[in-house]
UniProtKB/TrEMBL annotation:
Keywords on record: Repeat
InterPro entries in alphabetical order: Clp_N_dom_sf (IPR036628), Clp_R_N (IPR004176)
The organism's taxonomic lineage, starting at the top: Bacteria, Bacillati, Actinomycetota, Actinomycetes, Kitasatosporales
UniProt-recorded name of the protein: Peptidase
Domain Clp R, residue spans: 2-184
Record flagged with keyword Nucleotidyltransferase: no
Domain of life: Bacteria
Keyword Repeat: yes
Amino acid sequence: MFERFTKSARAVVTGAVEHAERADADTVDESHLLLSLLDRQGSRASFALAALGADRRREEIVRELAEARRRGGLSQADTEALAGLGIDVEEIVARVEQAHGAGVLAGAGTARGRRGFGSWSGHRPFTREAKGTLVSALRIATARGDRIIGDEHLLLALTTRPGVVAEVLADRGVTRAALDRVLP
């Protein structure tokens, strides 16, 4: 499938790996794909993000993704649903961090010493969700009649998959419907 990616889409994928490495994350997830998309300039996805104003809100997006990571990957909607059941996620996170250290639920570097053969290579696998995003990008490209997968298809895929990244984007007006309006 990777051979069908444009140069820009390939750059997003390799940029996501670099974001994961800088964060000392054991895996590449959807948030790394989004951060890499936000790094791009002069591409279809960067045009769409700029048209919707998300490019100017990068720091805000980074902060919200970090906060979700701190909560163990729970979205704000998950946190609110749990609050409705009387579960205070912030209190739980604070207690866990008090007992085990700040950011422990973020998972950065936790499995570094436990991985088996191949861990020495520095290879970071993609999470199931990130792989799903790549597959969704292929499906979106095909449904739009495109023979190749561009970074705009990756962005569209991130908005259609439930979770933290889609929520963060939607909170800033970057939805599938909004992208369909600004992407030709």
